[in-house]
Specification:
This protein has about 450 residues and is mostly beta strands. Helix content is about 5%, strand content about 30%.
């Protein structure tokens, strides 16, 4: 008779691992079996949503009682793009809403507010009520959300992913276009925004933390900048952190992103933790980066491998009484900038605050010229001649910044520092106002 040896600790561990693996595989297979494709198309008959022929005609007409976790909602883009004039809430967790694939359905999907001035303005385009919702374009800007009064997308839940989505402008409300909040209002735990492009904004992304939640948000490979100067030349901010939630934990990560042009502030941060890496800051009108916690708030900002650029104006652009700050702090909070290139603009940092994390290169700056590095060293950008030439504000075309190369030459003392990508047009089509800065500004 063959005697079986005891398994021992290692054998039991191996058996447990095998059983756990089998369980996971079984659950994944069950999830794959239960997952369904559901369809939205203006060509459908609006019934069951289970085929293109029976597709719901509009996202607002989805029968959410028929949608369960694991389902994938395919939204028809036709052959040349389809615009859905709509607004809707997503109440079901654990689902995917995506731009459809296939030759007859993979055009651009646009969710839009009403285009007629005779129709009441719709405040918010899309609201995530459930969690773990994935809104996915197939390619960059495959989905666009635009034309709403206050917000394009509102997220106050957790574990969501938004990828390849373009955010267009907000309309505000009559009579003067007031009431805008942000193209994206975000809060919750572990939300990710990947390869998203924000254009023609009042604010691109505004954090509104959720109470009782460890708010964590990640922006990766996103671009934030406007194609116009906005009302009163005010495009408020690309990325704005929490302003009035001192007791709520919050962390924002931004990696491989572009802030500007054209905006008042690149990143405006007041509360919580901020980590910015491998990013380009392009000539904000007021400030590329400001970290200024108010009384009762604390802020920690760590910046690494970023390039900050402010265009040289001759004379300096004092049209609104404000010079171009490149980095500004108010002496409170903890700010460290490391391995970064800072070119041009005014460094508005108190002499008593140490923000130099080492490895920085700065050039053509004014203000506190020792806050970031002990001396001025030319980073020798690839397109140095065009970037360094001073201009009159009416002659400055912000869009040019997204076509020029900010990569230091291989022989530069700044080689290996700053943003690892130097040319925005390698990622997206050039953007920014195509005409010079206005000499007279006004609203509608």
């Amino acid at each position: 008779m063959k005697h079986h040896q005891p398994l021992g600790v290692r054998g039991l561990y191996s058996l447990a691992c095998a059983l756990a693996t089998a369980t996971v595989i079984s659950l994944l297979c069950q999830a794959q079996v239960s997952a369904r494709n559901l369809y939205v198309s203006p060509s459908g008959d609006g019934t069951a949503g289970d085929t293109w022929a029976h597709a719901w005609k509009d996202p607002a007409q989805i029968d959410w009682t028929q949608v369960v976790s694991g389902d994938v909602i395919q939204v028809d883009g036709g052959t040349a793009g389809i615009t859905y004039t709509t607004s809707f809430k997503v109440p079901v967790s654990g689902i995917v809403i995506r731009q459809a694939g296939g030759a007859r359905h993979n055009g651009k999907v646009v969710f839009s507010g009403p285009t007629s001035f005779t129709v009441p303005v719709v405040p918010t385009g899309i609201t995530f009520v459930g969690s773990n919702i994935h809104l996915l374009g197939n390619t960059r800007s495959g989905i666009k959300i635009t034309g709403y009064g206050a917000e394009c997308l509102n997220i106050q839940t957790s574990e969501n992913v938004v990828r390849n989505v373009e955010f267009g402008g907000l309309t505000g409300f009559p009579p003067y276009g007031g009431g805008k909040i942000a193209e994206l209002t975000f809060g919750g735990h572990n939300n990710h925004f990947v390869a998203c492009d924000f254009r023609d904004f009042f604010r691109c992304a505004l954090e509104k933390p959720v109470a009782g939640v460890d708010n964590t948000s990640v922006f990766r490979n996103c671009t934030m900048g406007s194609n116009s100067y906005g009302y009163f030349a005010a495009n408020v901010a690309c990325l704005t952190g929490s302003k009035n939630d001192a007791g709520t934990p919050t962390t924002i990560y931004a990696d491989h992103c572009v802030f500007g042009p054209y905006c008042d502030y690149g990143v405006d941060f007041s509360n919580g933790k901020l980590h910015v890496t491998n990013c380009l800051f392009l000539s904000a009108r007021i400030n590329n980066l400001v970290v200024a916690p108010a009384t009762g708030m604390t802020a920690t900002a760590n910046v690494n491998q970023c390039t900050f650029f402010e265009k040289k104006f001759s004379p300096m652009n004092l049209q609104y009484g404000i010079p171009e700050y490149t980095i500004q702090t108010n002496g409170t909070g903890r700010v460290k900038v490391a391995n970064s290139i800072v070119y041009g603009g005014y460094v508005n940092v108190p002499a008593t605050q140490v923000i130099n994390g080492g490895g920085n290169v700065q050039f053509a700056v004014t203000g506190n010229t020792t806050a970031l590095a002990p001396s001025l060293v030319d980073p020798q950008f690839t397109d140095e001649a065009a970037l360094a030439a001073p201009v009159l504000p009416p002659s400055f075309i912000p869009r040019t910044l997204t076509s020029l190369d900010f990569t230091p030459l291989a022989t530069s003392p700044a080689a290996g520092k700053g943003s690892p990508f130097g040319k925005v047009s390698d990622i997206v089509a050039p953007y920014g106002p195509p005409n010079g800065m206005p000499t007279a500004v006004g609203g509608p």
